[in-house]
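Co-fold these.
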Amino acid sequence: MSSDRSADGDAEGTITRQRPIYTESQVIMTTVKVVIPFVLTYGLFITFHGTSSPGGGFQGGALIASVVLMIAFAFGIESTRAWLSNTLVVGLGTVGVAIFAAIALIPMALGGDFLEYTAYYPVLGDTLGLKEYEFVKYGMEAVEIGGIAFIVSGVLMGLFFALAAGFTPADLDVTGAASDAPTDEAVGDDASNAATDATGEVDAE
Amino acid sequence: MSVAATTTTATPAVAGALPLQSVGITPVEASLFAFVLITAVLTALFRDVLASIVIFAAYSLGLAIIYTFYRAPDVGLTEAAIGAGVTTVFLLLTIAKTTRPASDARFESINWPAVGVCGLFVGVVAVTLPAFPAVGDPSSPILTNADVTGYYLSTAYDETGAENAVTAVLAAYRGFDTFGEAIVVFAAGIASLLVLGREVFTA
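Predicted complex below.
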């Protein structure tokens, strides 16, 4: 992306246009191919070991999302957008909120307080073979992994693609940027419904 | 980690005067601070937005190293992943959609009244510096407070089984706040779609 900024100094106008956002680079593609497995592993490590070492769902989720960002920068945002389904991106965020809300609200149904992890002990203690205090640790890990990491990675990926597409008014089809922003109504319907469901659940508590 | 055992009362007045010198600032710290300061000023000065963004990423990386140096690895990781990584990518994406004025000037012209106001503000804040305890001072109020810090450090492992006290506070003791923060992140994603007038992230 840095190489496409060299064409400035246009003599005729005060404004220079940007070159296209994607330039295929063998160096970047090879580097990203080599680095990605390590970044993904590190992101998962940070997420899963949040209770016993520095890090947690937020940092790990950001690293997992950055894998997709790197793929998009190396192989083109449009091809990455076509490869990554909207259902996956929205699903990560909404499922994360649903899991977090469920883990938080179920203890209230069991007679405990909001997010009282030990309220699971009388119900699940025997089947899982865990002691009461262990439910706090595994509850925290469930919230970090299933809740925060899912939400952060999904939202960061989504923000990236939303920013890349930019703002294109439906009736104002300007040149250039408008062509790379297809508005697929049919795909978005079930996803946005799921989003309103999740937020409705949050409002209810 | 034996902070909870110390029951000495806080003496903020003693930890005054010149906090950095009393601890002894190492060359590593000094160079890190200089790096962060220079990159921060350069971010404001460069006329080319692309250069500003790249230097801003370097500034975030310097901050992340400082956080790690002062034993706040959780904050350092966040600063490195979000500040140096994801924010840089988002800013680059944004300026790729803009145009820039063709100009030979490398630096912004300096607005001296603004520099004066900023300098005054920094001066006023700097006056309060001697009131802070020294970095890592075991007698600082935050460490001798047995009701909050001491309680978490001494009981977090027994009550939650988490070796990382930061995560214990975030996900167990203050889980309700973390729940709210997670919802804020989710709402930010939805709001960005609303602002951009789109229904899908990827299509």
